[in-house]
Amino acid sequence: MEGGGMGSRGFGMGRKLASVDLQLLILGLLAEKPRHGYEIIKALDERSKGFYIPSPGMVYPALTYLEEIGHATVVVDGARKLYHITETGTEHLESNRGMADALFSQFSRVGERMDRVRRAMRADEIGEAADAGHEQRGTKDLLRARRDLKAALADKWDSSREEQQRIAEILKRATAEILGQ
User: Most Cβ neighbours (<10 Å): which of 4, 20, 63, 149?
Assistant: First the structure.
């Protein structure tokens, strides 16, 4: 399991982790409790809020490798295998605790961002339905203002950090004024 995983540097362009990072995450999960392969996939899905769902073709070879190098043991549980972390696996996990914690933390951050994106997309879908007249609640002026705001934000999406902070402050003030606060 030695080598250069991505650790806290991120997922890169896709949703793939280096095999050493996936192995470290699996050891972290096994340190919590013994798990079946499917439970590992489900736990990674839950911790990333759906952003990272490794395929069985990634997880099971990683589990086999962890067993081969002595970091995990397997107990046959009916037709399934229940994986346990070994003392050697625990030692390896502890010697790489910083990276494991950073990976789990990254999962949490990415999952939170994905939740925000999902909420924004749902709000956008509701807005588009309103624009199409399916839930015509706002006046034409309000709908036009919302569309103009969306266009302005899209134009500024790649602006500098300072400009984005300035825009965020404007939006906070506007939100407070709209809510009468």
Answer: 63
13 with 100, same domain? yes
Q: Are residues 143 and 75 in the same domain?
A: no
Give the amino acid at 169.
E
> Would residue 163 count as lying in a domain?
yes
* Residue 114 belongs to a domain: no
Q: Would 16 be classed as within a structural domain?
A: yes
Apex CA 55: angle with CA 118 and CA 35, to 5°?
A: 100
pTM of the prediction? 0.61
Report the range of poorest mean pLDDT among 46-50, 136-140, 149-153, 173-177.
136-140
Distance separating alpha carbons of residues 128 and 143, to the nearest angstrom: 10
How do residues 22-46 score in pLDDT, each as one tens digit? Answer: 999 999 999 999 999 999 999 998 8
- Rounded to 10 degrees, what is the CA torsion of 53, 88, 91, 26? 0
The total number of structural domains in the chain stands at 2
